[in-house]
Amino acid sequence: MKTLKNIFVAALSFAITSTATLSQVDRSHAPEPGPAPTIELGESTMLKLANGIQLIVVENHRLPQVSWTLSLEHKPMFEGNKAGMIDLFGDLMQSGTLLKSKAELDEAVDFIGASLSASAKGIRGSSLTKHTDEFLSLMAEVILSPSFPESEWERLRTQALSGLLASESSPSDISDALTRTINFTNNHPYGEITTAETLGSITPEDFQDYHSTYFHPNNAYLVVVGDIDSSTAFEKANTYFGKWKRADIPYKRWDSPDRPRDIRVCLAPVEGAVQTSIKVTHTINMPPGHKDGIAASVMNSILGGGAFSGRLMQNLREDKAFTYGARSSFSPDPLVGTFTAYADVRNEVTDSAIVELLYEIKRITIELVDSASLALTKNYMSGSFARTLEYPNTAALFALNIKRYKLPEDYYSTYLQKLSEITVEDVYRVAKRYIHPDQINIACVGNPSITESLKQFSTSGIVELYDAYGRPLIERSPAAEGVTANSVITAHYEALGGVKAFSKLKGVQLNGSVEMPGGMNLQYLQTNNYNKKTRGSRTTMSLSGYDIDVNVVTDKGGFIEKIGSKSIYDGPELFRSQWEELDPVFMLHTSEKGITTELQGVEEINGVKYHVISFSFDGSINMICYFDFNLETLSFSKSTIDGPDGPTTTTTTYKKYIEYGNGLSFPIEVVTLDGPKQMSTRLGSITINPEIDPSIFKLD
Amino acid sequence: MKFLLSCLATFALQPILLGQTATSIDFTEFDLDNGLHVILHEDHSTPIVAVTVMYHVGSKNEDPSKTGMAHFFEHLLFEGSENIERGEFDHYVENAGGVLNANTSQDRTFYYELLPSNQLELGLWLESERMLHAKIQQIGIDTQNEVVKEEKRQRVDNQPYGSMIAETMDACYDVHPYQWTPIGSMDHLDAATHEDFMEFYKTFYVPNNATLSIAGDLNIDETKALVSKYFSGIPKGKRSIPRPTEVEPIRTEERRSIVYGKDRLPVVIQAYPIPAQGTPDYYAVDLLNQVLSGGASSRLNKAVVDEKQLALYCGAFSFGLEDPGVTFAFAMVNMGVEPLEVEEAMNEEIENMKKDLISERELQKLKNQIETQFVSSNSTMAGIAEELANYHTYYGDANLINTEIDRYLAITPEDIRRAANTYYTPDSRATIYFLFQDDNNKD
């Protein structure tokens, strides 16, 4: 009886408990969080080897393995006509040493189950702790004595050429080439594009040179993470890398390419594409660890930088269903960074999606964000930060960043605190400062059928077309029979007043103003003397009577003086200035100077047809002139000059010619685009055959 | 929010995943009365917790006239519930400092939240809401229908070689539902009705078809109580859960096909039927593939890529599935090289595997590689939670996370040679060339 009762009681109490459990569940609200856990940053040790290697060790014995990362910290090198060498450097470096063939090296690494991967910026790998010595001896062999074999380079080049071909049909690769070209220009290390031609001019010696220039211990951090203590790591590093010799590393400064002046639209057409890859992007100037960095990161996160709740994702995906994903990135960089908002959308909604991307970008710069979004974003970012600590190499990365970017020692330990202090005003301030919706590139990769719908976004109304490598797309048809380079150039001068009238000019003085990048206005004065014996040209740009920029060219030489600092013209630059500035009909006088002129054909750009003529001299002058097919006058020219920092391309546009006297017409405005830097010269008045004081052309 | 459709190349570059660590993974598991299987792994190294639910439903459970349903349904389950407003699911998680996502394969659908450990209960509330009474509304169906189509355009149609998996699976299966991929047919999705979705929900999204796997900075007893609080009231499913019974007939003749597309480099794929994952021969095939393509010194890479210089990439890997799957040998052909030449070079290496046992040194290399892979895998809480759920869902044995290595180590060089002879047979395979469609080969 008693037993039965006990069973009954037990059953009853069980029933009560479980009912109680169920009734306790209040499903109508999200449960409250528990007390916030403590977040601990891992510890790292910094040591320095005698030869300059800076060692960072993070001890973590959870797994019996150790990873080793050697990271080089030099500024990027410009590759020019050998673009692609740096990308392939690691592969070739790993393709043989003075002691081992590629096959032997691969076998040795695989045999111990290790991984090893080299690049132009270092080498990384890992192995089980018990294989550390074999592993390090292989790693050191690759770093210290790579052989860059010719035959392996041939193999790699064939693969790279195949890879290029594959990239031609990859929207993401095309988009990458296009955005790099328009954000950075091909004259900046970040904007270089590998082509079959550049691959063709690379030799094994280029790899050897790069290796002997940059692979030195005083340029290196060695980051060690895992099942090892710092003294053992130091001892191993010394054993395997201690004999590595120091050397000077060249230092190179790079200008930051500017944002475009207005909204620029570029399209790389891909036949048959079912989606448009849209990137709305411009460069930013913010080094890692900048005081505005965290606020900018919060701003970007609210816009579309990670959380699913970001505005771009909510607007373009969850509300409009234009895309599988719309996001943004804000990437600080020691040289030049980028801001990009992006989405892949179906063809039909391309223009609607760009409207929404631009709307959201604009909105973040003109409206305060709501405090709930800010709170969510800060919570989200705190959580992301905490999650990275699951990986032991996070502590190593923190230590490395503090060193290489010269961040405050407490940058990461105070990160969460700084993040929590960001206000809506901070977000507004950085958005206004760093995001420029009116000076931005819209880079699309997609079906040619969308071209027309993109024009509305371009300030100039032009959609620039590019090929899969970020090169301007050129399609030319032959010119009509009887049309020659000479007839096109002659027609240009005739349309402006006549070859004869121009040839008779003794001189001109052009008065006007120049709008510099950034909006500053300078006075512009150009005086050209065409008298055979005393020829000269002097151009000054001045601010309130103070000469900022003086340019003088005569038959004897020339110079440029910028705010008191003078440099003498020589080589191709002098040759070209003399040709252009000292002769009123210089385009007709080419063969006697050895300049080759060729009629390239007829090209149509955004509905306007042009006769295209190239001028070239000895490989150093390369100018392509576009003459309006109907007006017959020169519309714009593109010229490339090989300078000490590699080739630079300048586009000069001549806007509307009007008559300034004596029946002679001149362009009312000349716009020069040097990469993304734009300068506009407006002509006010022109004096024909003025009195000229010859002393203004003095060279010394 | 995504379906598992790894590009072959990406897939092949990864080492075979063995799902083990040298240090043993401790866990607690139990069933609730409603059939929900629960696995808990406690690890306090970082104050985070991974809350995951694996539903044992994938594209192979779909009606052939309603393909794409499992993946589409995964999208719908972010739309909200009786207590969670539309669009709020993500907000709860992100506001708590967490991330969330989901993916759908042929065999299962997997949802996860990675949260700060003090938000464990939030994760349980969200997942229990999803399981108990998700709200499926027409506006969500309409929106996600477009989103999924964009997903297909982005990941398949506009992706280099994006149709490769779908074409290959289609060539390999005639009767089994593996013949379609999780993204399914857009026409089928357009035709799907609200009732279809509710049917699917009631059939598959039931506790007795799910595994709740949680790993991280948690206390086992407290977590047990919380799990019971949120999940024990969810009613058990009343229907039987349909699983495909189709058995693919044995192939007796090679199938060869050519797919023309806009990708410039030819790709050669040879796909051979293999046994289901977890069977002894599956492990033998997996190791055979490791010999063929594990590391730069592996046989296919060394011969086809480095020495003969015929391809940009060449490798072999198994597509392990719950029902009998396939193994692929795959090459991206260098420009100017005939695909047939590459195919013959691949065959030569496979024939060598059939004739000779791997050498002592190769065996040792294989063991070293496996050991490293065991050590490196399962280093994150999210990874551990998923692996535990996988092992339980497919094999009913979560402890395989610690013991599966023994199955690999039991494989001998003879097993590998036998696997090559048994499964890498020309008659059973499907060979597909993916070629560039230019004006010369247009229909």
Could you explain how this protein is built, in words?
The complex is a heterodimer of chains A (700) and B (443). Chain A starts with a helix and ends in a 12-residue tail after the last strand. In chain A, strands 13-20-21-22-23-24-25-26-14-15-16-17-18-19 form a 14-stranded antiparallel β-sheet, covered by helices on one side. In chain A, strands 1-2-6-3-5-4 form a 6-stranded mixed β-sheet, sandwiched between helices. A 6-stranded mixed β-sheet of chain A has the order 9-10-8-11-7-12, with helices on both faces. Chain A is an alpha+beta fold. In chain A, helix 4 crosses helix 9 (230-241), helix 10 crosses helix 16 and helix 11 packs antiparallel against helix 12 (350-366). The longest helix of chain A is centred in the first third of the chain and has 23 residues, at 2-24. Chain A is 33% helix and 29% strand. Chain B has 443 residues and is α+β, with helices and mostly antiparallel strands. Chain B has 2 domains: 2-231, Cytochrome Bc1 Complex, Chain A, domain 1 (2-Layer Sandwich), CATH 3.30.830.10; 255-383 and 395-436, Metalloenzyme, LuxS/M16 peptidase-like (Cytochrome Bc1 Complex, Chain A, domain 1, 2-Layer Sandwich), CATH 3.30.830.10. Chain B is built from 16 helices and 12 strands. Chain B has helices at 8-13, 69-76, 88-95, 120-133, 138-157, 164-172, 186-191, 194-204, 220-231, 280-293, 299-307, 339-355, 360-376, 381-395, 400-409, 413-423, and strands at 2-3, 28-31, 37-42, 48-55, 99-104, 109-116, 210-216, 255-261, 267-273, 311-319, 326-333, 430-436. In chain B, a hairpin with a 5-residue loop joins strand 2 and strand 3 (37-42). The longest helix of chain B is centred in the first third of the chain and has 20 residues, at 138-157. Chain B starts with a strand and ends in a 7-residue tail after the last strand. Residues 1-21 of chain B have low confidence and may be disordered. Chains A and B meet through helix 1, helix 3, strand 5, helix 5 and helix 11 of A and helix 3, strand 6, helix 4, helix 5 and helix 9 of B.
